[in-house]
Amino acid sequence: MTVLDVLSWVFLVAGAVVVIIGGIGLLRLPDFYTRMHAGGVIDTLGAWLIILGMMLQAGLSLVTAKLVILLVFLVMTSPLSTHALAKAALLRGLEPLEGRELERRGDDD
Amino acid sequence: MIGMFGAAVAGLLVCMVMTLTRAILGPTVFDRVLAVNSFGTKTVLLIALYGFLSGRPDFLDLALVYALMNFIGTIAVMKYTRFGDLAGMEDEGSEESF
Asked: What is the interface pTM, i.e. ipTM, of the complex?
């Protein structure tokens, strides 16, 4: 097992763990705006780590070029769609939870 | 013995189940859109990983196309939810509850 393989293992497993953490957050956080944070974790760190792990396995080839394109595309579009989502929700009148309400809903959810 | 790609695929699948649960439960339409968008990102990663898993990284082309479709889909749904119309912006959308 070479150094690259070990690094790939580390990146892919770390990416999987981050993605699972994001999934738990998406499921358990109390309201829409807090769930958005969990979604952000998946779209940024999770995707980056997993793609980085795949890049190390692919070496210098066309596959890595495609992975770079995929990464750049994810980096550009995921903040855009998150922004559109938050703006649409806010304009539609969805109020963020605050203070005691946030604690109460966080407990029984 | 599962390889490194198998481990990552397993983690992704677990997370996809949780995301799908949120998409089904989601009290508001925005929760559902957030979950579906996140599910799409994970599908892109899953397709790419499956390519490596089966030794055919050509699957990356499909992943790229899926990423594009996912983005366009989210923006379209958001525009529809906000304006109630995909074509124009002058209609400020009705105020029915979501």
From this structure: 0.84
Yes or no, beta carbons of B71 and A77 under 8 Å apart: yes
Exposed, middle or buried, A85 (CB in 10 Å: 0-12/13-18/19+)? buried
CA-CA-CA-CA dihedral for B33, A35, A19, A53, to nearest 10: 80
Residue B77's CB: how many other CB atoms inside 10 A?
21
Low-confidence ranges of chain A (pLDDT < 70): 99-109
By CB neighbour count within 10 A (0-12 exposed, 13-18 middle, 19+ buried), where does B58 fall? exposed
Ranges of chain B with pLDDT below 70: 1, 84-98
pLDDT at B91: 47
Which A residues in the span 33-92 are in contact with B, Cβ-Cβ below 8 Å? Answer: 35-36, 39, 42-43, 46-47, 50-51, 53-54, 57-58, 63, 66-67, 69-70, 73-74, 77-78, 80-81, 84-85, 88-89, 91-92
Whole domain around residue A9: which residue ranges?
3-108
Give the count of domains, chain A. 1
